[in-house]
């Protein structure tokens, strides 16, 4: 337990370091974009290659891709049906800010450090489906509700194909299923780069952390987070107690169900001319809440 708390404390310390360095001017607001690109396009893909390389995937775990999409649609449905008597803008806001998980820059580092290889693979498979929701699925449905523009499969596909982690997930999954090994030089290089992913991800979260909601928005902030984590707790219990997977996989799914809102949500909210400040506050507060919940769960489960 002490070892778990120590490693988790290191993660929190790196987040605080990133936030502190931004406050004293070492990092600028614009640096978040650069750090995020390094994490999502370099260290995370390398970590994905390391996770999949040399390991055989149980084909039954492919259902995790569909589970992630199902979870996304559950939150989208709640956002839609709970706002039938409100404005279409509010309905679209909830549909966009309730679903999706921050897996690449949040859960993957925890999985790398605390869960075994099977837990990392389960997390990666879940994130493949999660990308469909985070990288355009939720936005397309929310925009359809707000302005009647209709669902755009082309836009969704374009978003997915421009996501380096998603493309990497798909390539590594296909190589694994047809038993094509990753060349040793590639694996060696990926391991070196992938080892930096946990640090880069936590530092990026710290640099990007901000709370912009004013007092009048606190009610909306609390409502979204209560729905998010209330439903997440139910999903986590169903995952852990009802699914017929190995314990490592179920532990990973519990963490995934209670992970923060997807990091791209504020940007998509801005595209819909929604309340970006509130969306950013929801995003940042969900990180704080998830850190507390996940560290607590890790000390109990491991």
Characteristics:
302 residues; mainly alpha; globular; cell membrane; AEC family transporter; Mem_transp_PIN-like
Classification by helices and strands = mainly alpha
Mean pLDDT value: 86
- Unreliable segments (pLDDT under 50, ≥5 consecutive)? none
How large is the share of residues in beta strands? under 5%
Q: Give me the count of strands.
A: 0
Radius of gyration: 18 Å
Strand and helix order: HHHHHHHHHHHHHH
Shape: globular
Q: Quote the distance from N terminus to C terminus.
A: 8 Å
| Approximate helicity band | over 70%
Describe the structure in your own words.
By secondary structure, the chain is an all-alpha fold. Helix content is 76%, strand content 0%. It has 14 helices and no strands. α1 packs antiparallel against α14 and α2 (31-52) runs antiparallel to α10 (197-208). The longest helix is centred in the middle third of the chain and has 31 residues, at 117-147. The radius of gyration is 18 Å and the shape is globular. The mean pLDDT is 86. The chain crosses the membrane at residues 6-22, 34-54, 60-81, 101-122, 128-145, 157-178, 190-209, 221-246, 281-301. It is a multi-pass membrane protein. Keywords: Cell membrane, Membrane, Transmembrane, Transmembrane helix, Transport. Belongs to the auxin efflux carrier (TC 2.A.69) family. One of its GO terms (biological process) is transmembrane transport.
